[in-house]
Amino acid sequence: MPTVRQDAWTQEEDLLLSEIVLRHIREGSTQLQAFEEAGKQMNRTAAACGFRWNSYVRKQYKAEIEMAKKQRKERKKLIREPAETASEAEKPTEAVESEASLFDAIRILQKIAEKSKQENKQVTDVQRGADEWKLKYEELLVMYQEEREKHEQLQKEYSALLSIMEKARKLVEQEV
């Protein structure tokens, strides 16, 4: 039995989940069936897909959900019409579906582009912050090296002073 994934959701998985659920809405299917299909495709449980949809993804696709519901309504209306008018009405349905699919694709691409811009801005901000920290580090490194040189010089002077004092002590002991 394959292991069911429990890792974090990716943007691509959210997109796939939305496409599947919106298609099921348009076709008049249940969301439970959509979650089961999505779960199989992403190797996740239907419950996990349902939770992700209801807690996060659905909120980002309100307009698309309304459009899918309208398309479902149109589809049901066409199915109820008499058989002779149904064949003539199929052409507008295909046009509505292709327009909706194109509309969905455009909206999805716009959202991806917007998220990409936000991520690029965040990366730029992080890079700017990293550059600032690098400059501060270099300044502190120069200060450290200067202080280290001063410390070494003081150590030499202290050692020389101790040496002089030791010699003086020995001279005093020799005289006494």
Automatic annotation (TrEMBL):
Native organism: Weizmannia acidilactici
NCBIfam families linked to this entry: DNA_bind_RsfA (TIGR02894)
Source taxon at top rank: Bacteria
Signal sequence extent: none
Amino acid composition bias (Basic and acidic residues), ranges on this chain: 79-94
Residue ranges the record marks as coiled coil: 130-171
Q: What is the lineage of its organism?
A: Bacteria, Bacillati, Bacillota, Bacilli, Bacillales
Q: Where is this region: Disordered?
A: 73-96
Among the Pfam families in the record, one is Myb_DNA-bind_6
Tell me the protein's name. Answer: RsfA family transcriptional regulator
Name of the gene encoding the protein in the UniProt record: ylbO
